[in-house]
Amino acid sequence: MATSITVNYTPQTTGNHVICYQQTAPIDDGLNFCCLTDPTVITPALVGVPQVFVIPDIEIACAGVGSASVYVGGEATFNGYVNPACDPSDPAVIKTPWDAPVVLV
Q1: pLDDT digits (tens, 9 = 90+) for 37-81
Q2: Cα–Cα distance for residue pair 101/59, rounded to 1 Å
Q3: Tally of structural domains, the chain
Q4: Cβ(98)–Cβ(9) below 8 Å
């Protein structure tokens, strides 16, 4: 019952980026975000080039986000944002939001 979330993003700055997520359904666990660092270092040549980051099943339960694995055969929805690692706290202008339904089998 492996579950992963694929996040596609297009970086607008150089350096590492963090991908943050939280579960919003069927249970909204509040404002707890789990953040993982994409190991791809964005060089000037990669700015504007679409990137793919996969949040593996093992990470879905980190930092109190909640585990999608407990909802066998259902759907769990996650949302989050991608942000340059050099400025993880703000500004909202740089954060790129995303959301994803995850269907469990």
Answers
A1: 899 999 999 999 999 998 877 555 564 555 544 444 566 777 888
A2: 16
A3: 1
A4: yes
